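Query structure, 422 tokens:
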């Protein structure tokens, strides 16, 4: 029984693979698609996120070869859905007394990603040092930090500091003191820090769109209110013009929603990742400093909520315009049905009049035919009287109702036959 079950599972797996389904190896590879660069000791980590003019064709990560020495930089290129990131870790022999100079040149970056004029999304420099000093202030001042946020992260295993200011080379600087993180935990912790900056920048790409749409949404609201009021007072003769205006406004709103739907959707997704990465830091308070994650969240969430509110407003405007369009179409349909009812009633009245006329004509026809037949009978009786055959006047009197009845019966039978045939 167990042997047969195993064969059945194997057959199903073979069928699934032959039909283009994912194999177990594909699922397993996805779990390892974005590994961190593991390292120990003092180091300088540079992380750059670029958005190409077209979505990246590749996905996953690839490591570039290095010199093999302990101080040779290690570089990792990752292809995401919308952007590409480059991460380089340069080992330092001792703790740095000043901020390291970037090891990336513009030409080298372009060669690594093989893109034409990519858009810079974020650039983060993380200086990893040893144990934090007793007083952070002098060290931060020496390295040029101002208004710094700091947190103890990883359950107290490290400390992260940043003033979130972008330098002249577009780099946002982060200082990380490592107490007792090993190479694997340190690599993952550094990855969380630079992913917070990267995904925060990607999420904020929706903010310019929200600001651009703000005045347009105000105009859409105003126009929709005006058209709604006009819908209540517009006479029947102007329905067509009003319908065209509402249709035009609805098309504009739907077009704006379609243009920004993906961007606002991406903003929500990236914001969720930022919140998850902040939670994974497991940060705690450093006396005298605002927490790293709190600083990011307080300035980041309002922007995300602006994008969410804009997307929601667009959606509501779209539904409202479509609802107004449906109301107007319903009103027009009711008016058309009313006009049709009037026309049908008029046709019914004309048909009834025609029936009455037809009945009157039938009555006149009976009288005329009967009169004609009685005239013939009278001529026949008179001719017989002149020929010597005297016919009693009583016969003439009796023939009058008989002729009229026969004519009426004949006309009614003809009418009935025609009705049955129709």
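Result returned for the query:
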């Amino acid at each position: 029984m167990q042997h047969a079950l195993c064969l059945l599972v194997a057959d199903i797996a073979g069928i699934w693979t032959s039909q283009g389904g994912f194999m177990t190896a594909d699922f397993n590879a996805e779990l390892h698609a974005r590994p961190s660069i593991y390292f120990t000791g003092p180091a300088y980590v540079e992380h750059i996120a670029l958005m190409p003019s077209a979505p990246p064709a590749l996905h996953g990560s690839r490591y570039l070869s290095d010199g093999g020495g302990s101080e040779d930089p290690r570089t990792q290129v990752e292809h995401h859905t919308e952007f590409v990131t480059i991460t380089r870790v340069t080992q330092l022999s001792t703790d740095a007394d000043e901020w390291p100079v970037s090891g990336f040149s513009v030409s080298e970056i372009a060669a690594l990603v093989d893109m034409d004029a990519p858009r810079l999304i974020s650039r983060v420099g993380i200086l990893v040092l040893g144990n934090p000093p007793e007083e952070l202030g002098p060290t931060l001042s020496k390295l040029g930090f101002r208004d710094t946020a700091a947190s103890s992260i990883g359950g107290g295993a490290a400390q992260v500091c940043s003033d979130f200011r972008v330098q002249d080379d577009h780099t946002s600087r982060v200082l990380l003191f490592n107490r007792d993180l090993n190479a694997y935990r340190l690599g993952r912790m550094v990855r969380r820090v630079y992913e917070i900056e990267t995904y925060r920048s990607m999420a904020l790409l929706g903010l310019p769109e929200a600001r651009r749409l703000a005045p347009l949404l105000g105009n859409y609201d105003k126009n929709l209110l005006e058209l709604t009021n006009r819908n209540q007072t517009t006479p029947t003769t102007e329905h067509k013009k009003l319908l065209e205006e509402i249709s035009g406004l609805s098309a504009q709103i739907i077009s704006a929603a379609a243009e920004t739907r993906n961007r606002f959707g991406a903003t929500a997704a990236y914001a969720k990742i930022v919140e998850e990465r902040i939670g994974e830091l497991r940060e705690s308070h450093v006396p005298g400093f605002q927490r790293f994650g709190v600083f990011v969240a307080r300035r980041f969430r309002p922007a995300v909520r602006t994008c969410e509110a804009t997307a929601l407003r667009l959606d509501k405007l779209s539904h409202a315009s479509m609802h107004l369009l449906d109301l107007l179409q319903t009103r027009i349909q009711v008016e058309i049905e009313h006009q049709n009812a009037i026309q049908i009633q008029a046709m019914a009245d004309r048909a009834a009049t025609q029936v009455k006329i037809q009945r009157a004509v039938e009555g006149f026809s009976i009288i005329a035919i009967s009169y004609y037949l009685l005239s013939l009978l009278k001529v026949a009786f008179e001719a017989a009287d002149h020929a010597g055959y005297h016919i009693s006047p009583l016969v003439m009197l009796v023939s009058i109702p008989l002729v009229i009845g026969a004519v009426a019966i004949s006309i009614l039978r003809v009418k009935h036959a025609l009705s049955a045939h129709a």
